[in-house]
Amino acid sequence: MIKEVTDQYNAQKIEEKVHNFWEDNQAYMKVREHRRGEKRFFFVDGPPYTTGHIHLGTAWNKIIKDSILRYKSMNGHDIVDRAGWDMHGLPIEVKVEGVLGFESKKDIESYGVEKFVNKCKEFALKQKDAMTDQFRTLGTWLDWEDPYMTLKDEYIEAAWWTLKQAYEKDLLEVGKRVVNWCPRCETAIADSEVEYEDRTDPSIFIKFATKNENDTYIVIWTTTPWTIPANMAVAVNPDFEYAKIRAVKEDKEEILIMASDLVESVLKKGRYTDYEILETMPGEDVAGMEYKHPLVENIPEQSKFDHRVYLADFVTAENTGCVHIAPGHGVDDFDVGKANDIPAFCPVGSNGHYTREAGKYEGMNIRDANKVVMEDLDAKGLLLADDTITHRYGHCWRCKTPIIYLATKQWFIKIGDLKEDMLAEIKRVDWHPDWAGSARFRDWIEGARDWCISRQRYWGIPLPVWRCEECESLKVVGTRKELQEIADVDPNTELHRPYVDEIKLTCDCGGRMSRIEDVFDVWFDSAVASWATLNYPHREDQFKEWWPADFITEGHDQTRGWFYSQLGASMVAFGQAPYKSVLMHGFTLDSTGKKMSKSLGNVVQPHEVIEKYGADSLRCYVLSSSAPWEDLKFNQDELATIHRTINILWNVYRFPLPYMALDKFDPLEVSFEAVEPYLRKEDRWILSRMQSVIEEVDRSMEQYLLHRAIRTINEFVLEDLSRWYIQLIRPRTWNEADDPDKLAVYRVLYDVFANLCKVIAPFMPHLAEEMYGNIVKNVDPDAALTVHMCNWPKVDESLKDTDLEEKMTAVRAMVEAASNARQKVKRKLRWPVNRIVIEPENRQVYDAVMDLRFVLMDQTNAKDIDLVEVNHSWDELGVEASPNHSAIGPVFKQDAGKVIQYIQKADANELKKGLANGELEISLEGESATLTPEMVKFEDKIPSMVAVADFSGGRIYVDANLTRDIESEGFAREVIRRIQDMRKELDLEVDENILAHIRIDDERIVDLVLDRENYIAKEVRSQVQVIGFDVDATGTLVKDWNVEGIDVHIGISPAN
RNA sequence: GGGCCCGUAGCUUAGCCAGGUUGAGCGCACGGCUGAUAACCGUGAGGUCCUGCGUUCGAAUCGCAGCGGGCCCA
Predict the structure, then answer these.
(1) A86 carries an active-site annotation
(2) A595 classed as catalytic
(3) pLDDT tens-digit readout, A354-391
């Protein structure tokens, strides 16, 4: 039986109840099982990093996923949706190091790698559990019980296998390259792990003394003085013009070489007082010039090298136009070195301290060295200018240490060889929005470089590469099984460091093979998620059935991240994209559009929001506020508005329940067919609207336009249900008998809610479940366990009537206009009006009035409707004529006054008729004159106590003239309203009877009210009722009122 | 500095693809309704459609340049 719900909407209570229900009944599992064997939908969860706490962005991410999956499930899809966790890598290492108070890798080594790795694992698992709970409070359904975890051996195997594919396809490369390096973490980091932030650095100009000419210097510029010890060359642009100048400063003269266009600015920086250009030359002529390393006296190693000027296209016309080249410390520099056989001299160690090769600087930290290098240069008179600059500089994404560039030996995936195929593949992927793939992702891939996948760390998937200590040949292992076949390995050995490090292989040459110590870049972990989540290569069957993914969705930062890493790994492994469609979503920003960050203190925690408004409100807010791919400016007020909307939905839902419960309404007994003959126009209208809403939600969801889907639903709830349908049917629900008109309303409302709870299910899963539980499951014990197991409602074409929907829209416009007009004559809606008059502009509006006459009368509280023919005027309108002076003057000159008087005195109707067909001859004091239509302005004269208002399809008049009958009804309803108010105050049951004593301090009004004594008694359920001028207004509750200036005293009591 | 996206009322947004009087919600002011009532409805005020230039009879919409914000990159 349907139950009354008396409470206000209480999200927390409902959500807790629903969560318990889901858990007790294993609802998630049963829903997924329910769909086994239906159309497959393979979803891959982008694994969040196990930081221990979710934030608004990850919450939004999972909410999008959940809503789409729920929708897909209801639409008959068999879903794979293992939740994923990204659990390896530096972030956790850094965190654990922090807990243990470590400062460098040495601390880890002395603590013991095994203990350290176990700490990391423990930490990751704990964080995962905490985050799972947090995600669950959002009501998100993924396979939380059996998630994929990158730290699991099965998962590690997927990465190993993939690397072996790369090796076998000659896509794996090892070599010395310049990489981003974190001197604190002592490891290479990927481009995508570099965070750019503002930083202030030295900005210095240095003179390099040329070898063959005295007192002649090439001027270079740098922001990293510490790289000067590694300087090996200077680069100039072949297309620039360079100048050799004599520069003067404090009576000293020297000869400087730099780009011609930059001479003035450089000399200004160096505070030179005068200069003269000695010679200009193209860059090509500068090339080949030899110079002396500025610190060669401090760095003996540098005396072994020649230093020259080379040509390079990347040199820009900034600073001096001559670029300091240190092949050991820069990507471009490295390339210049490679092209010209310059050694990549790199006197800096992995910890950011100079090595023995740096001579004087050995052991010094490079950041501390900046100052020393500058002092040394200055002492030698080689520091031309010394300033600072604030610029964007890369930092380690985890420990925020400024990165350096180091030439080191690393492992790479040759993206260059795959690029063309990748570009072809992404065209086959369905991108939402389209530009996410066709523009943004394509641009990124076009600029992509080889992918450095090795890290010199501990907590990660070990690279499955063994190298012979004798002959250096390599062995790449793809699976645990393979490893067991070629080595004596305990089958329970965990595939992490340090355990795998202990495994030694035997080379074909007889030499001993040891694993190279690196672990994978953590991005490689998640890159293999689409097959790792299917346990491939451990199992093949699932992979064959499901792969590739039907759908993934992540934020736009993942363009360079997971969208890319997955594509790269999948091209290596299978030569095709691992996903068929991608929805790129936005970022959550604070209410002013700034990034949320701890340092700005503007972070909004999901749990705070949930505690205040509930998960369904949060879900609806983040989904509806903007298009998925746009950034979300998180705004509490907007969230509160959405919450209010859901509250209205709740009120709409609970409104009919007391009546239904009272009448023991059973939808299994009262069929739609049975009530169909009694349906009113508005009933058919709301049923049609429901169908249109389903259709529109479908259309939106097809394109992942979740915001449109929810806005459609909210508008339906607010506009159609709350503001219109419920208002229209209220009186019908108060009928007491087994009235078929009332049963029709019940049935219609029931069908609307039965559909509505399914339509909101993907977005407000808790509220949907609550509604479903009461109105469906309480009625039908055989109904599906949960609303989420139901089939998505199918549009019933027989209920759709778009013509009726349009007519109702027109009627609503008229009611609004009528309300506007009433306000002009200050006639409250409670007071009926004699009639309203409609002047329709077109046939459709005319038909709408004909068809929905009752609705219109009801909602305008009018006794009658006069419907005028299309494009005709109401015949009771008077006409007012006024002279148009500017047209009359020029024609009649001095007689104009007489004409004006004539028009003012004339019968406006006659005048209008006369002018209708053009000119009109009139007689002015015996003389005839000719009036033309421009000379007279006609305006409608509205009868008194009639107000007018326009609406989009015409004009409406409200005749508010009072009659005794109307006054009687008006006052009666005023009295009724106040008694109802008092009943409410006494908290009486809806069907409880009362005694009422009413004293009205005006005899005429007493008379009017007595006309409707019975009506009042019926409306307020008064058994005994005394109304009069001399009544003693007594009762349990007595109140004094003022109605339209008349004092009214009312006393009521419960009848027994 | 480059790529992509965004910029419309105090706030959140629709309209932009396919050019033809900027439309809503929140908030505000005023009014109404009254057994959904801690709810609900109406009316009103409030817009240099980021700026400038161009295309066009006509630009929020198309193009170019710039400004501001976001993500990504250098």
Answers:
(1) yes
(2) yes
(3) 999 999 999 999 988 999 999 999 999 899 888 887 77
